[in-house]
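Much of what follows relies on a compact textual record of a protein's fold. The record below shows the convention in full:
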Amino acid sequence: MPYNRLGSSGLQVSQFSFGSWVTFGGSVDTGIAKEQLQAAADAGVNFFDNAEVYAGGKSEEIMGEAIRELGWKRHEYVISTKLFWGINGDMPNMKNTLNRKYLMQGIDGSLERLGLDFVDLLYCHRPDKNTPIEETVWAMSDIVASGKALYWGTSEWSADEIRAAWLIADKYGLRKPVMEQPQYNLLHRDRVENEYARLYNDVGLGLTTWSPLAGGILTGKYLDGVPEGSRATLKGHDYLTEAASSSADQVRELAKIAGDLGVTTAQLALAWIAANPHVSTVILGVSSVSQLHENLGALYALEQLTPELKTNIDNLFA
């Protein structure tokens, strides 16, 4: 497993990482979580991504309990959480905000559920149009200064918002945002490849990308309809059916290229993301240990991905 620096920081994260969105909570218990986490660690994964809102806080609880039962030492893994949506109902200051009160209480709640003294990475899960960015930057910097998080960053912020936060931190000598967690895959490219283009050099932005397979579309499993039990059958994910239909021809061509390389369509799609030098880690969302092992086969696909072949895939999904 290769390891990459997280942006301009000195932190090393595995090329592929483990995400708990649509994974932990619901029907997943601590025993299953332990199997998945240990399988990931055995493969060299050291970064485990979470968020306050995943399964209403249950995902953090399950991950924290599983790690304790596995007996992992704190220096052996990098763990994250994200704050914005809130899980305490509709009361003021506790939902869809990045104000100081919410952030200071939110990190304490996440740490309690995870059973940790600190998280390595803390994200602002979405931008907050109703709170001055300066207030958010001061609060996130103070959280890092308190030792409750080691680095902070953003998720799905615009380039202008990230730059504004960085400049505020620079002006006042505060802890700067280090990383962004955007959606990035062959069907969703513009923000990472164009909008953020100057941020990589200007502010040293690192990326921990999510939805690498576009909800499963890039595995090819929707080419013949919606399989029973797939993500497209889950509440709130019905949009995948239309997206799969509109990209079917491209996915079929990708499958042909993958077949010629002796890899799966999913492995090639994952390798394509990992080949982007600005991506520090690709977050995998898996439902089983076997799926995790299959996805990690993308490391082999990455070795086969020549610059010429990558350009061909770029053009296919342009």
In short: The longest helix spans residues 100-114. The beta strands are 3-5, 12-14, 16-19, 47-49, 78-83, 119-124, 149-154, 179-180, 206-209, 279-285. The chain has a mean pLDDT of 94. Residues 124 and 154 are 5 Å apart (CA to CA).
